Every structure is written in C-alpha cells, then in structure tokens.
Amino acid sequence: MSKAIHTRLSIICLGIFSALMLVEGSFRIGALWTPPAPSELYAKSLLYDSSIFSRHVLQPGPREVEIQQSPQIRYRINSLGYRGPDFLEVKSPGRTRVMIYGGSAVFDVTANEEQDWPHKVGRILRERGHGDVEVINAGTPGHASFDNLGTYLTEGHSLGSDYVLLMNEWNDIKSFGNDGSLLRSMKPYDPYHNPFIYSQGAVDGFLAEHVLLYRFIRGSLIISSRSEFNSEGELLRQPGVAGHISARALAQFKLTVASFVDAVRNGGAEAILVTEPHLPRPDNEAVARAKIRYDYVGMSPEVLCQAFDEAEGVVKDLAHQKNVPLVDSSLEMSGREQYFADHVHLTPLGSSTMAVFVADRLELILGHRVGR
Questions:
Q1: What is the pTM of this model?
Q2: Which helix (DSSP H) or strand (DSSP E) does residue 76 occupy?
Q3: Residues 6+ apart with CB under 8 A from 139
C-alpha cells in the first residue's frame, strides 16, 4: 500500500472516529433520556434460574427489584426465592402456613411490595384475629399449572404448609391450541436469553457499559429483533391462529390440576382450588378489549372466552370430584374492567378486592384451627 493511500485511509478513519465521538458527546450532553446499561437493568430485574422440574424458578435473594414503570413498582425476593419477607423453612410450632401457587397473577406483578394480594390476605386474616396464620406468595411469573406441580413436588411440600391454593388458567390456556404433547412442545428456559440484562460477549459488554451511542443502537436492534416476543420471553402469535381448543391440551390441564391436588394431599396439606379472575368476556367493550393481549395466546376474542370457560369448568369439576374447597373469585370479578390492568393482572382495586374475597373464604375454611 502506498504512503498516500495509507495517509488517506488514516484521515478517513480519524474523521469517522471524530464524528462518532462528536455524536457520543452530543448524546451525553443533550440527551433527555439515556438507555440504561445491561448491568443497571440486571440490578433492577427479576432474575430466574433454569430448573429440571419447572421451566424456571425465581433466583433466591434477598434482593430488592425496582421495575422501571410509571409508577415504579418494587418487589422483594427473599432468600428462598419467593416474593416477600423471609420465612423459616421449618415452620414454627403453632403456625398455620398457607401457600398460594400460580403465575404472574398470583405473584401480582402490578402491585408494590407487601401490596400483592396474597400478602394482603395474610394481613387481613391476622387483623381478624388469626394471628397464627402465615401466607406465602408462591406465584412465579410465566408459570403454568404444570410448573406449579413441579415446584410443589420438589420443594413446596417440604415447607410445612397446612393449606395450598392453586390459581392458574391463563398460562395454561396459552397451550390450549396445541394438539401436540406438553412434553414435546415445552422448551427449557435459558436464563441468559435476555440481551437487555446479559451482554452477548466481552466486546458487546464493554461497549454497552461505556459507549452511549452503542447503547442506543444496541437497544433499538434488540427491540426490533425481539418484537415478536412477549414480556415473558414467549413467541407472540397472530390472534385467531389457534382457532380451536385442543381436547388433548384440555385433558392435560385436567390431569395436571388433579395431580396437584393429589400431591398436596400426599404432602400432608389441604388443597384449595381458585378460579382465575380475568377480563376477557363475550360482552367486552372496545376499551376492555384493547387491554387484552390476544397475541399472547393466538386466539380470537371468542375462542379465548371459550378457553376460560373450559378451564374454569375443569377447576370446578375437580373441586367437586375431589371434594376440595373452591374459591370462585372469577364469578366475583371477571369481566369488570375496573379490576384489571390487562387480561389477568390486577389494578390496586382489583388486588384489594381479590384479597378480601380470598380472605373471606379462607376464614370459613380455617375457623379457629390451630396450626400443625
């Protein structure tokens, strides 16, 4: 290469570098908002570990999580990997321990710490004189009933619960349009699949942490490439793709819930089934329908309503067949827009209403029983 060409290339490279530095400086001086670095998002995100017995589990803390929403939402994950304050693995004598299993609707993702409805249930019961009652929120975002079965079988049973509630329909409905087996359709969870909080190699990590321009471009590319995924990392589906409800999937749901009840009984506790309150109803108006993510399930509004009816029918039938208490919160709340932030997640009013409703039913079941 001649000296002239080498000089020209050096000038071009220097010009490009200078331009990039100028843009970088402009961003740092004039940007009204700067995207957070992966390390910053990592510190403010729910973290998961993969598991053999469920698709994932919450990574144990103790850890405070601040979700960047408006208003900001705060969670606390305790040292055992459950939402809320720490509790003893070996239950204290005289305690009555209640565990509530489900997905994000039980975790109560829209509620601030200690305002999630399972913890409100415990507070209400204690205020009513049941000072020995301890309620544990065992909900995990993204979990379906088969995940709940796996986590109870491999850990929950050992925590000395007296009563175990299961509320999960929405996350199971996501597979209701699948004619294949659950075994073949569910994939392992990769805890490092989220590029927003995990860098993709040393170079990407360094640039994302230190170069603001790169961070802007990187974030835009990630959002563009992942626009087909929902907030739980699952592939979005065109509404109406699942035009039917699979008999096989429905039978699987029934077997899973029945097995959960049997597992709880075999673990020495009493099972309680809860219908899941939901916004989708045949008579939803346009404002309510706009809140519902039909692309999470790939169903039309009509098929989704049918799916909820089928799932509720399974839960109610099993409660009758197996002689377990039923908390029919769906009957009380479903379809009422003021209770829902979206398809199943609750507003503050909905969370409070749910807590009172469940506490009322639990109080009838508990009576003045002394914990084991």
A1: 0.88
A2: strand 73-77
A3: 83, 100, 101, 102, 103, 104, 105, 106, 107, 108, 118
